[in-house]
Amino acid sequence: MDPAAARDWWLALEPVHAVVYFDEGCRRSMAELGLRGFWMGYFAGRAAPLGPVAPEVVAATFFNFAPDMVARALPDAWALAEPDRVWAARRAGAASALRRIVPDIDERAVRLVPLLTLPVAAASGAGRALFAATRATGWPDDPVEALWHACTCLREHRGDGHVAALTASGLDAVEALVLFGASEGLPDELFLAARGWSADEWADAAGRLRDRGLLDGDGPTHQGTQLRRAVEAMTDHQAALPYASLEDGALGDGGGTGGAAMVRDVLESLAPVTSAVHRSGTIAYPNPMGLPAPTLP
Question: Can you tell me the distance from the alpha carbon of 172 to that of 229, in angstroms, rounded to the nearest whole number?
Answer without folding.
Answer: 17
